[in-house]
Amino acid sequence: MKGGKLIVFSAPSGSGKTTIVRHLLSQEHLNLAFSISATSREPRGDEKDGEDYYFIDLKEFKQHIKNEDFLEWEEVYRDNFYGTLKEEVERIWALGKNVIFDIDVVGGLRIKKKFPNKTLAVFVKPPSVDELKIRLKKRKTENDEKINMRIAKASVEMATAPQFDFIIENDTLEVAFKEAEVLVYNHIQKSSSEEE
Q1: Most CB contacts within 10 A, which of 73, 90, 101, 166?
Q2: Other residues' Cβ atoms within 10 Å of the Cβ of residue 13
Q3: pLDDT tens, residue by residue, 92-142
Q4: Number of compact structural domains in the chain
Q5: In 3-state terms, what secondary structure has residue 72?
Q6: In sequence order, what are the residues at sequence separation of 6 or more whose Cβ sits closer than 8 angstroms to the Cβ of residue 48?
Q7: In a domain, 144, yes or no
Q8: pTM
Q9: What is residue 163's three-state secondary structure?
Q10: Those residues with Cβ within 8 angstroms of residue 10's Cβ, 6 or more apart along the chain or in another chain
């Protein structure tokens, strides 16, 4: 697989990574396109297929795994799979753009491992677990049981932060935006000779 750069943003749910990724996508000079993940879960709220995720049923998802169609995939919760289809990255590279990912920490680190020099891996850290809980409750998209599951998972995810190239603490959104812009811009400017 040859092509543009890969930019991974990973974080516990509620850290603000999606907001940061959306901001970066609006910065035209960065020439980014969003990698749409595939998932076996049902759409939530007003999520659209082919825009927010590629919604694939469980059987089809498992067939894609068998066919080695994924760059990375993971069973995040029981029978709840997420992954990045290789053809999605190739589609974006064919447009002459750099790929930005908004994915969980395991997937993010797998991409970094596969393409160590092409990938910038950024971990977005919430100010605290308490703040994370407040943000998740404000969303009003999940019940308390789901929120508690996400909080438990967040503690495990926070421990992976040092494995990323950079950590952005999302305390003040404007500061996080600026930090993210500089990191991405510098990564894109790196010459291809520095890559594998």
Answers
A1: 101
A2: 21
A3: 999 999 999 999 899 999 999 999 999 999 999 987 778 778 877 887 777
A4: 1
A5: strand
A6: none
A7: yes
A8: 0.87
A9: helix
A10: 17, 101, 103, 104, 105, 107, 108, 109, 121, 122, 123, 124, 157, 164
Element (H, E) at 153: helix 144-158
CA angle 188, 96, 121 (to 5 degrees): 35
Look at residues 29, 38, 43, 191 and name the one whose alpha carbon lies nearest to residue 101: 38
pLDDT tens, residue by residue, 156-181 = 888 999 999 999 998 898 999 999 99
What are the backbone dihedrals phi and psi of residue 64, each rounded to the nearest 5 degrees, phi first? Answer: -60, -40
* CATH classification at residue 40: 3.40.50.300
Backbone phi, psi, residue 22, to 5°: -60, -40
Q: Can you read off the two tokens belonging to residue 29?
A: 């000079």
For the segment 55-78, the average pLDDT, to the nearest whole number, is 94
User: Long-range contacts of range 29-32, CB-CB < 8 Å, 24 or more positions apart?
Assistant: 29/185, 30/98, 30/181, 30/184, 30/185, 30/188, 31/4, 31/96, 31/97, 31/98, 31/188, 32/7, 32/97, 32/98, 32/99, 32/100, 32/184
Range of the domain at 85: 6-189
Say if 85 falls within a structural domain.
yes
Instruction: Confirm whether 195 is domain-assigned.
Output: no
Tokens of 185: 């811009």
Residue 103 near residue 87 (C-beta atoms within 8 A) = no
- Structure token digits, residue 69: 């169609």
For CA atoms 184, 188, 189, 190, the dihedral sign is: positive
**Tokens encoding 67:** 């066919």
